[in-house]
Design brief:
The structure holds 2 protein chains of 2 kinds. In chain A, helix 1 (2-35) crosses helix 2 (42-59). Chain A has one domain. Chain A has helices at residues 2-35, 42-59. Chain A has 2 helices and no strands. Chain B folds into 2 domains: 1-24 and 222-296, no CATH class; 27-217, no CATH class. Helix content of chain B is 59%, strand content 0%. Chain B is built from 13 helices and no strands. Chain B has helices at residues 13-22, 29-50, 56-68, 71-78, 90-100, 108-120, 131-134, 139-146, 150-159, 164-190, 192-219, 248-253, 262-275. Chain B is globular, with a radius of gyration of 20 Å. The chains are: A mainly alpha, B mainly alpha. The interface between A and B is medium-sized, with 19 and 19 residues.
């Protein structure tokens, strides 16, 4: 259990921004697209969210560098 | 403690403490009402918005308002100002703090342990967890600092890794923070725009508000040392809109004074504050209660 917790903690520390981009921003972009009836696959909006997350991970921040 | 022997007996630390203690007894019912009230209103926004009783825009406006009221009740609880040393009442501190912080997704245990370090090391660049916002040169720098996220907390943990009690609270807080994250990411899949505008965005606004008025203004360009690290300041904004943070310096001197008793305590302690050369003490009005402390 301790090993599992350690692996999980490491994974979250390294990849939390990517998961947040995919799930949070992907869901938000998809909902906005649906709201404005922009005809595109959900896959596109979740991919954009994922891309946001990957960029944030490599920059180390979502917006400005502190 | 630094600077305690530099004034006459008339303004001794013992006398100052005695006066402060007389304002440190009352149960902070106003703060409990604000904490429990705002969190209950915020929770009720979800069914009201989802079922179409109020618009998402109006719900979001109310959620931002709730988020700005979320921290201070927890702050009183972090100092044990509800239980007042009575072990049977400690559950009130814990309940109020956990419940009120839901709106801004802050874990009580993480806030409490880092806030105690902020009191112990105010304005110390290496050890004060709030130094990033307190030392900012403009509101813009405060806003930028608030989005540092997990990096800031990793640095704090590294600083105090040898303090077992701190790390116990810190790790408990991190676990609760993780639960918040899981709930947020679950809700956003089911209610995407509601989660964005009722929780995520209001919590960000609340944190910027909190950092600006609780961390930045009170400690702006102040030094280290008991009577030097927090200042009296005035502002164009009526004090009821910024939680009377112009008076925050007295909290740093005597954290047991309840928030709503601070104006009276400052009136009583004013000669001591002037004698100790607290930054801005000369400008404290004789009557604080109805004075909005406005400075245009």
């Amino acid at each position: 259990m301790a090993k599992f917790n350690e692996i999980l903690s490491d994974h979250i520390a390294k990849w939390n921004m990517v998961w947040f981009g995919l799930i949070f921003w992907g869901s938000v972009f998809n909902a906005v697209a649906n709201h404005y009836e922009i005809l595109s696959s959900s896959l596109l909006w979740y991919s954009i969210g994922l891309l946001f997350g990957i960029i944030a991970k490599f920059r180390g921040t979502w917006l400005w560098k502190v | 403690m630094e600077g305690l022997d530099q004034v006459s007996e008339e303004f001794s630390f013992e006398k100052e403490k005695e006066i402060a203690r007389s304002f440190s007894k009352r149960f902070q019912w106003e703060m409990m009402l604000i904490g429990v009230g705002q969190a209950t209103i915020w929770l009720s926004l979800w069914p009201l918005v989802i079922n179409g009783y109020i618009s998402l825009g109006f719900g979001s406006f109310l959620a931002v308002f709730c988020a700005c009221f979320a921290y201070l009740p927890s702050h009183e609880a972090q100092h044990g100002n509800f239980s007042r040393g009575n072990p049977k009442r400690r559950w009130i501190d814990s309940f109020v703090s956990h419940y009120t912080l839901i709106t801004i997704m802050f874990p009580h245990d993480l806030m409490r342990c880092t806030h105690m370090k902020h009191h112990a090391y105010t304005n110390n660049p290496e050890k004060d967890p709030d130094y990033d916002t307190a030392s900012a040169k403009s509101i813009w720098e405060v806003i930028v600092a608030t989005q540092a996220g997990i990096t800031k907390y990793q640095a704090i943990a590294d600083n105090f890794s040898s303090d077992a009690a701190f790390m116990k609270s810190f790790n408990k807080g991190v676990a609760i923070g993780m639960i918040y994250r899981v709930i947020l990411l679950t809700l956003v899949v089911i209610f995407p725009l509601e989660t964005l505008l009722l929780w995520w965005m209001p919590s960000k606004v609340g944190i910027i508000y909190l950092s600006t008025f609780f961390s930045w203004y009170p400690h702006y360009q102040t030094d280290t040392g008991r009577y030097k690290d927090t200042r009296f300041w005035s502002h164009w904004m009526p004090r009821f809109l910024n939680h009377s943070m112009q008076l925050h310096f007295v909290h740093h001197l005597h954290p047991g004074i309840g928030h709503y008793d601070e104006p009276k305590a400052i009136e009583a302690l004013k000669p001591f504050l002037i004698a100790r050369k607290v930054p801005g003490a000369e400008e404290i009005p004789d009557r604080v209660k109805y004075n909005p402390l406005i400075k245009l």
